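Field reference: sequence -> structure
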Amino acid sequence: MDDKGRPSWASTEIERHYYDTEWGMPVTDEVGVFERLSLEVFQCGLAWRTVLTKREALRAAFADFRPDRIARFTAVDVDRLLATPGIIRNRRKIIAIIGNAHATLDLRETPPPGPTSPGRVEAGLPAFLWSYRERSPAPATEADIPVTTPLARQAATDLKAAGFSHLGPVTTYAAMSAIGIVNNHLAHSWRREPVARAIALVTGESQQEDEAET
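Structure field:
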């Protein structure tokens, strides 16, 4: 942890930039949410800096993470990806991303399982995930940040039922933290307040309400 309250995982320049500009900021469009979920799938078993370093190559290889295009990938594309330098070449993860693209398209016609923010969150996958919005006390230390929560476990279960794979409770909660569904910036982090303001604009909650349990 440094003097700006960044977590220990933000220890390199690329990780600090990601933390300072993206992590925890609300993502409410389908492509953006699908990309973050896919990056979390790729991260399993790897250092986050590895994923960030390969992010642009992954975007190029996976059609900018547009579900419509990825859903058309075939076995030929899987072989192509396994031979593509600069990306994470794991067959199971690649197949999972393609399957998740199909599931994302199916969710476009599915109402979210809980309340969301009409007009602020795109229908389909974004509305689905944002319906699991939860508030929690601002963590004082990294030890106070859980690896998952009951609501994230339910989200993971429902994602699996909807056809998604490689998105267990820990991975799902990491994605929820990354796209602003839960604000896990430390209480003294310089990013806690601006992220809380951005989340309040999406949810319609007041910033004070978002921080009420801190």
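Note: The two ends are 20 Å apart (CA to CA).
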